[in-house]
Each structure stands twice: as C-alpha cells, then as structure tokens.
Write the structure tokens for this entry.
Amino acid sequence: IQKVIVIANQKGGVGKTTLSINLSAALALQGKRVLLIDLDPQGNSTSGLGVSKKVEKTVYHVLIQGVPITDCIIPTAYPNLSVLPANMNLAGASIELAGMNFREYILKKSVDQIRDSYDFILMDTPPSVGLLSVNAFVAADQILIPMQCEFFALEGLSQLVTVYESIRGFANPKLEILGVVLSMVDYRMNLTEAVAAEIKTHFAGKVLATIIPKSVRMAEAPSFGQPVMIYAPDSKGAVAFQELANELLTGYPAV
Amino acid sequence: IQKVIVIANQKGGVGKTTLSINLSAALALQGKRVLLIDLDPQGNSTSGLGVSKKVEKTVYHVLIQGVPITDCIIPTAYPNLSVLPANMNLAGASIELAGMNFREYILKKSVDQIRDSYDFILMDTPPSVGLLSVNAFVAADQILIPMQCEFFALEGLSQLVTVYESIRGFANPKLEILGVVLSMVDYRMNLTEAVAAEIKTHFAGKVLATIIPKSVRMAEAPSFGQPVMIYAPDSKGAVAFQELANELLTGYPAV
Ligand SMILES: Nc1ncnc2c1ncn2[C@@H]1O[C@H](COP(=O)(O)OP(=O)(O)OP(=O)(O)O)[C@@H](O)[C@H]1O
Ligand SMILES: Nc1ncnc2c1ncn2[C@@H]1O[C@H](COP(=O)(O)OP(=O)(O)OP(=O)(O)O)[C@@H](O)[C@H]1O
Ligand SMILES: [Mg+2]
Ligand SMILES: [Mg+2]
C-alpha cells in the first residue's frame, strides 16, 4: 500500500464513503497518522466522522480560493485521524475548476505539500467522473475500488478502467490499482456469486481477500458520527475493516 | 401525475434507475405511450431495458450536436415503451454544456417538441447536481424522488430541496414535487422506521403510500434487460411497481 489512495467508483451507492471512513479509522487505530479528504459535495465522509459541515473552511476553499490546505484540515474525535471537510459549496466546483489553468492538478499541488505529515492520505470521491474525481486520480498514488456484486455495478467497470487509463496516460503515469474490495456483500442475493466471479476475471489478482459484508451496524454508525469499529467494535463490519487494514498493510488478511 | 417527470436524487444508489425502468414499464403495460430518457453516462436505464449502448445516436447527440430527438429515440422490446439511450460519450457533456448559451434549457427545447407524442416522458438522472440534472429539472413538470431509508440518504435531502427551489425560482416556476417513493426498503434494518418517519416530516403529504421493498428479483432483472414485471411478474417488486403506477394515475394504491 502506498501513501495517497483515492477511493473511487462512479457507480452510486457502492460503499465508497463507508470504505473511506472505516478504513481510515482502522489505519488510525493501528497508530498510523491518517488524513481523509472528502471530495463529495454530499459531505458524507465529513458527517460520518462526526465533523460539522457548517465549518468555515472546506476543501472548496483549498481548490477554488487557494486557501492553504493546512488551514482547513480539522482533527476528528478519533486519535491520529484528521479530515479535510466538504459541504454543499463544493457542488459548483467542477464548473469553476473547468475554467482554471492546469485544472486537473489543483488538488495534487496541495496534497504534495502535506505528504510528509501523514502515513496515509485517503480521498473519498463523488459518484461521477467529473473534475473533482479527476483531481483525486491525479493526486493519488493508488486507487481502491469498492464494488457491489450487482449487475449495474459490473456494467460501470469498463468506464472506470477507461478513466484510470486516460489519467495514467496523460497526467499521472505512476497511478496503479491497489485493489478491488467486494463491498456490501449479501450472500442471499443469487447474483453475488456470479458477479463476484466476473469481477475476479476482469481484475485478476487485484480482488482483495477481505470481503465487507452487508451489516446493519454499518448503516447505523454514520448517524452517530462514528466509524463502525467505535460504534460496534464486535460487529462483523468492524472486524472486516480491521482485516482489510491488515491485508493492505501486510499483504495478508489477519484471520 | 403530469406528463414530464424527472426521477432525481443526487445520493448514489438509491434506486433512481430501478424506479425509472419499472415505473415506465408499469405505465406502458397499462397502455400509456411512454418515453424514458436516460441522462446518466452509466447508461443503466438503457441497458436495463435491453437496449444496446453501442447505438449510433444517443442523448449526447441531441444535447451537444443538435441532432433531432426524434432521430435518436429507439423502441424497446416492450409495447408502448421507447427510450432515448445514453452511453459513456455523455460523460463529458456537463463541461461541453457549460460553454453553451442557455445551457440549462437545451433539453427542454427538445422535450417540448415531442410532448404530444407521449402520455408520459420520464427522465433518469445521474447521482449529481450537475448540468445534466439541471437540464432535466428545467424540462420537467414534476419530480419523483426515490429515497432509501438510511442516514446518508436523509442527509442529502436538504441539498435536493435547495436545487429544486433554485430551479423553480430561476428557470421553471411550474416545477412541483410529485412525491417521494420509499425505495429498497428492508424492514430488518433498524434504521428504516426512524428514517422513514423523519422523511415524512420533511415531505409532509408527499410520501407516496406505495413502498418499494428490497427484492432479489429486482436486482436480477436488469442483467436480462427486462423490467421486473416481465422478468418475475409475481414478485413483490413487480406488484409494488404496478401499485405505484396505479397510485400515481388514480391517487389511490390498488390493493
Ligand atoms: N457493508 C454495509 N452494510 C450495510 N450498509 C452499508 C454497507 N456499506 C454501506 N452501507 C450503506 O449503504 C449506503 C451506501 O453506502 P455509501 O454511502 O458508503 O456509498 P457511496 O458509494 O459512498 O455512495 P455515493 O455514490 O452516494 O457517494 C449508505 O446508506 C451506507 O450507510
Ligand atoms: N428494490 C430493490 N431491491 C433490490 N435491489 C434493488 C432495488 N432497487 C435497486 N436495487 C439494486 O440496487 C442497486 C442500486 O439501484 P439503482 O442503480 O437503481 O440506483 P441509482 O440511484 O439509479 O444509482 P446511481 O446513483 O448509480 O444512478 C442496483 O444494483 C439495483 O439493481
Ligand atoms: Mg459517498
Ligand atoms: Mg442510476
């Protein structure tokens, strides 16, 4: 695992934010200094970590108004875990970015300045392939892709790979796929096995061993502003995210 | 129910496409002439109705290249149901639209030309508040909002209402909320009751009686390119969409 990771999949509702929040928290619990950058105007990573969206300075100010990123980063209630918050003012940012020089490199400029202050910098992205996501791809070392085992999610894979390849070709040649995380997995759905097998052929060798199961506690945790390993430490979701952190840190899922 | 309906919610994965496909099919089964416009670059409404995304003319050609909408509409395998397809070439359309005059009215110009040829025109939108969704809001008479009973979905409501009010104020004063459809409802999730109650306070009188349950058949149907009432006519999903069509057409859910 490298330092700057973008969590991306333009398909909506596949668990990007849930993966961002809970992997960040799991890495922080292991003593790693972690920053989570929220690039979604919905601000779900921000509120899911208990940070108010009514803060004065957000990622919008970093991208569009040139405010130093260190002035906008906020500590969370959880040790070793900080967040660069987002809120609705980010909604118009793609159009504003479209008119700027080097519009794809704006975020990278800020992220490169703070790389030495963190062990990991994770970025949660919105469900689209617009300029906010492109900025995250350009700033990142690796991509982590949450995948739901359903038909529409599978359909979106080729678009995601096209975007990844064009960013590698034009703006960020060292960008690589860290892995695919099978997310929100519900074994009662007949589709799951067939789609999971299909994903494994597309991404041979990249599908991570740790699977994130569908779990009620996981959907409840954000309403308390807590990662699932704080909200329900013994739940299957909390265990899965710690296993995922171990797998990424050591290459082997902890059993 | 009026003629031109936009199906919108910027939160990802809440059932917009599933509602678009299955409500269109349910209305068509009742003998209504229906057009479904796919405004999502993912093209899920297109493939979910069994239409190839490799077609030559799509909604991109209508919006950006001025090709007449009647040249791009394709019949589906299902009587009374046509689709204006989308594919990945739509992904760059927001940026291209941003540079055009009257960029918010481009779709409306085309939709207004064909209103008399259909009883209903439904529009499926991507999970964002960009220019594609804005175009759909400006072209529409009413908005139908699928809502998942989960914390992040609830959080997004205020953003959706802000967009709706600003479109009404600037571009489409007659736009109204047709209703909120509680979607993908899974009664095992503790959150559901509490969040559903919260939604009913926000949208007093607008939450439709018909509830769309979580159902395995529903997630399987799109992989066969079929609406659920064709794929599994006796499933609870198929029944729910027919009830929804009845409720919208008559004001009462059929029992
Ligand atoms: N493993 C899980 N078990 C149960 N619920 C989950 C799980 N993962 C995510 N959820 C819930 O499913 C919904 C979608 O997840 P989430 O918001 O993380 O997806 P997303 O990809 O970030 O969505 P968007 O595309 O809107 O950004 C949320 O309500 C979330 O709480
Ligand atoms: N009632 C349901 N029961 C079971 N699965 C469902 C139901 N409704 C939708 N799904 C599945 O959940 C996933 C999300 O639904 P869908 O794609 O319709 O949402 P969306 O809001 O259109 O997503 P996006 O924001 O990416 O456009 C899909 O895989 C779909 O097949
Ligand atoms: Mg998210
Ligand atoms: Mg959709």
In short: DSSP finds twelve helices and seven strands in chain B. The pocket of adenosine-5'-triphosphate (ligand 1) is lined by residues A 12-18, 40, 44, 126-127, 184, 212, 214-215, 218-219, 222, 237; B 11-13, 127, 150, 152-153 (CB under 6 Å).
